[in-house]
Design brief:
Layout lengths: L1 E6 L5 E7 L1 H4 L5 H15 L58 H17 L3 E4 L9 H11 L4 E5 L4 H7 L5 E5 L5 H6 L2 E5 H11 L1
Parallel strand pairs: 1-3, 3-6, 4-5, 4-6
Antiparallel strand pairs: 1-2
Helix pairs in contact: 2-3, 4-5
């Protein structure tokens, strides 16, 4: 089992923590990581784009001129795609972009992302993070003490003071154990987790 240092909010090392290899020490599966990111981004798409085909554009019921003898090319409708105001060829229609992964694939992808973060020394453990008030400056001070930027902070519970203190800091998000996802772990430079959050992750995913 891998050992990682545990820090306090002043950035000082206060101990070590043993990580479960079945969650934080597996060989990352790049194919599953790619699938998980693709699925998450695809599932965010609304799929509501729509344009009208020639059959849906109003007007154009009458042939604009006779077939022969005018010198013009033959035309059947002023709503054909080559006309201004005409329909769109192969127009987009509302569709569902959903990509589904099964539970085993989701779990393995998440464990791969966490293991990759540990392997690349991008995983930091805090003993705890608690604030008496909502103060962005305090949260920024914690990040500065840990020397991190562009970070995802994993909390073990819904701590309003911490979440709201981090909300206005650029390139920093907070999340909880039940809402962590592969895309965010890979997107941010550093994963910062409280000791209690790490224990919960190991409890759920081991």
């Amino acid at each position: 089992m891998a050992n990682v240092s545990v820090y306090n909010i002043e950035g000082s090392e206060v101990g070590t923590m043993e990580l479960n290899d079945s969650v934080f020490g597996i060989e990352p599966n790049e194919h599953l990581l790619h699938m998980a990111v693709t699925a998450q981004l695809a599932n965010k798409r609304q799929g509501t784009q729509k344009a009208k085909t020639r059959s849906e554009v109003s007007g154009g019921g009458r042939k604009p001129w006779r077939q022969k003898g005018t010198g013009h090319a033959r035309q059947g409708s002023t709503r054909s795609p080559q006309w201004t105001g005409g329909g769109v060829v192969f127009a987009p229609v509302p569709r569902d972009y959903t990509i589904r992964l099964n539970k085993k694939e989701k779990r393995l992808a998440l464990k791969s992302a966490l293991s990759a973060a540990v392997k690349e020394d991008k995983f930091l453990v805090l003993d705890e993070i608690k604030f008496d008030e909502i103060k962005t400056k305090k949260f920024q001070g914690v990040l500065d003490a840990l020397e991190v930027n562009k970070a995802i902070v994993i909390l073990d519970e819904n701590d309003k003071n911490v979440i709201l203190s981090a909300r206005n800091i650029k390139d920093v998000i907070t999340t909880q154990v039940n809402t962590i996802n592969v895309y965010d772990i890979l997107k941010y430079n550093t994963v910062v987790a409280t000791k209690a959050a790490v224990e919960k992750i190991q409890e759920v995913y081991a």
